[in-house]
Amino acid sequence: MSGLKKELWGWVRYIAGLAAAVFLITSIAGLNRVSGESMQPSLADRDILLVNKLSRYIGEPAYGKVAVIASSSLGYRLVKRVIGLPGDIVEIRGGIVYVNEEALPELYSTGDPEDMAPQPVRPEHVFVLGDNREPGASLDSRNPKLGQVPVSEIEGYALMRLLPWGGIAGPLD
């Protein structure tokens, strides 16, 4: 093999390897920018999140996780917290969120939400809320425009806030 062919073959292998690495990395992790004030006080407008995309393939939704949702009904991405799983009953009474008649200890949320009648979470769906619970502050599962979110629309779960640097407030275990 001539020197030129050998060098060209080396470049082809390098570019193919680089493309495969980029594909794997973007399939496993990603970045997402928070838009709006619906996740305050945990996250602010324009925060950058590191998102674990792999978890959507190998895990199930979990209480308290901050999910990145690609809403087909709205046509854009949202960042919301998972509150209810399939089969749960979610209710808001006196400003307190209840899941299956148990009050959630939510130190990460702010605001006084309006009451909401008990809602059973449908199969293959999750009930999500923004951390800012003031009426009208968050487009979440309380709003019929979004409603309960199909699990298939969850792109991944936030691992951490990259900019500004820091963690994300989570549920009490």
TrEMBL record:
<dbReference type="GO" id="GO:0009003">
    <property type="term" value="F:signal peptidase activity"/>
</dbReference>
<dbReference type="InterPro" id="IPR019533">
    <property type="entry name" value="Peptidase_S26"/>
</dbReference>
<dbReference type="GO" id="GO:0004252">
    <property type="term" value="F:serine-type endopeptidase activity"/>
</dbReference>
<keyword id="KW-0472">Membrane</keyword>
<dbReference type="InterPro" id="IPR019757">
    <property type="entry name" value="Pept_S26A_signal_pept_1_Lys-AS"/>
</dbReference>
<comment type="similarity">
    <text>Belongs to the peptidase S26 family.</text>
</comment>
<dbReference type="GO" id="GO:0005886">
    <property type="term" value="C:plasma membrane"/>
</dbReference>
<dbReference type="GO" id="GO:0006465">
    <property type="term" value="P:signal peptide processing"/>
</dbReference>
<dbReference type="InterPro" id="IPR000223">
    <property type="entry name" value="Pept_S26A_signal_pept_1"/>
</dbReference>
<feature type="domain" description="Peptidase S26">
    <location>
        <begin position="11"/>
        <end position="162"/>
    </location>
</feature>
<feature type="active site">
    <location>
        <position position="80"/>
    </location>
</feature>
<keyword id="KW-0645">Protease</keyword>
<keyword id="KW-0812">Transmembrane</keyword>
<keyword id="KW-1133">Transmembrane helix</keyword>
<feature type="transmembrane region" description="Helical">
    <location>
        <begin position="12"/>
        <end position="31"/>
    </location>
</feature>
<dbReference type="InterPro" id="IPR036286">
    <property type="entry name" value="LexA/Signal_pep-like_sf"/>
</dbReference>
<dbReference type="Pfam" id="PF10502">
    <property type="entry name" value="Peptidase_S26"/>
</dbReference>
<protein>
    <recommendedName>
        <fullName>Signal peptidase I</fullName>
        <ecNumber>3.4.21.89</ecNumber>
    </recommendedName>
</protein>
<keyword id="KW-0378">Hydrolase</keyword>
<feature type="active site">
    <location>
        <position position="38"/>
    </location>
</feature>
